[in-house]
Design a protein that fits this description.
Layout (H helix, E strand, L loop, with lengths): L2 H20 L7 E9 L2 E8 L6 H11 L3 H14 E5 L2 E2 L1 E9 L6 E8 L6 E6 L2 H4 L4 E7 L5 E5 L5 E5 L8 H13 L2 H11 L5 H23 L7 H21 L4 H20 L9 H34 L4 H23 L4
Parallel strand pairs: 1-8
Antiparallel strand pairs: 1-2, 2-6, 3-4, 3-7, 5-6, 7-10, 8-9
Helix pairs in contact: 1-11, 2-3, 5-10, 6-8, 7-9, 7-10, 8-9, 8-11
Length: about 350
């Protein structure tokens, strides 16, 4: 094998080898729970994306959403074990559990009613979804009650929260920052789109320009969607995100074109990706300062995660750019990226 071919072949093999892991667009699954506390009644409403969960849990949810009573009961039993609510140390009694499809098969809402022996003084919520949703699963929980609540992060190393309903709740900003970082670093569809845009950039300033346009665009639509000013169903947004990956990858194989075109593509499709980011917050239906904190923290986390990802990949791209085989390397890598985008597109429009 000649030197001119060695680098592109190796890069292509590495990219293709990593595709099985990358095809799960978000490895760290995140659920969004709204916990409503009204006197002695507690409503726990959990929104999850089946596509983010392990295969067994995903299929169980999908069958339950489709109307399978046996699978719904299996999921309900798992929820009774996984979610425990206590008031002043006394466990609340499990009640009705219902599973609904709220996103054309892409999003599931699980409603869980609990009955407590007394009105909350100290309210405790404990979760352990590791057995069903995987050990890396986490929940952003928003507790609502006339006495207080706030936003909290539950997951590995933090399985329980305790809230004194008589004292102000914490801001929860750090939890949303962590959620934003995790969302972008495990959002391989978003990262592949950004890296494909950066392919062939001549210098650091061009990379920063492309990243800045992507950031500006997705920040706009993320904010508008979370504020309820723009609405686009996930069944439309998710296939469009996959299509954007295919489009940029194909353009790379044909020739990246001028910088102004790259900046325009980064902005236009960045608007679409921002709507995808919004799915992490919109189901919480926050308002007031809680919404401001969540939006600011999550957006900051997304940008921090993006900086981390670019910092890791940029030196590699600059080294490749100085190679005589740069064009072939990017062509082979773009072919693999296009294949990943095509897989996601077919999966998201519901073809089997």
């Amino acid at each position: 094998m000649t030197g001119a071919w060695r680098i592109p072949v190796v890069v292509c093999c590495l990219v293709v080898g990593l595709l099985p892991a990358a095809l799960d667009a978000h490895v760290t699954a995140t659920g969004l729970a709204v916990v409503e506390v009204n006197d002695r009644e507690v409503g726990y409403h959990l929104t999850v994306l089946p596509s983010e969960l392990p295969e067994a849990a995903s299929q169980l949810l999908l069958r339950a959403m489709a109307g399978s009573s046996a699978d719904a009961e299996q999921l309900a039993e798992a929820m009774r074990r996984a979610v425990v609510v206590r008031v002043d140390g006394a466990p609340c009694r499990p009640g009705r559990i219902a599973i609904r499809d709220v996103g054309a098969g892409l999003k599931a809402l699980v409603d869980y009613a609990l009955h407590c022996s007394a009105a909350p003084g100290r309210f405790e919520l404990e979760e352990d979804w590791a057995g069903l949703f995987g050990e890396h699963y986490q929940t952003i929980a928003t507790i609502r009650s006339p006495q207080g609540g706030g936003e909290h992060l539950l997951g590995q190393g933090s399985a329980r929260i305790s809230v004194d309903m008589g004292t102000p709740s914490p801001t929860g900003l750090a939890g949303f920052v962590r959620l934003g970082v995790a969302h972008i670093l495990t959002g391989y569809d978003h990262l592949l789109f950004l890296f494909a845009l950066m392919a062939g950039a001549a210098n650091v300033w061009q990379v920063l320009g492309i990243a800045s346009m992507f950031t500006l665009a997705h920040s706009i639509t993320l904010s508008l969607a979370v504020l309820g000013l723009v609405h686009a169903p996930a069944a439309v947004v998710e296939p469009l995100i996959a299509a954007s990956i295919i489009g940029v990858a194909v353009e790379n194989m044909l020739g990246a074109g001028r910088l102004w075109r790259r900046l325009a593509v980064a902005f236009v499709f960045g608007l679409v990706h921002g709507l995808g980011f919004a799915d992490a917050l919109s189901p919480l239906a926050l308002s007031g300062w809680s919404l401001v904190r969540a939006l600011a923290g999550f957006n900051l986390g997304v940008e921090l995660g993006q900086v981390i990802a670019i910092g890791v990949v940029l030196p590699i791209m600059l080294v490749i750019g100085r190679s005589t085989s740069a064009v072939l390397v990017y062509r082979y890598a773009s072919l693999a990226v296009a294949a990943a985008g095509a897989y996601w597109f077919v999966e998201r429009i519901g073809f089997e």
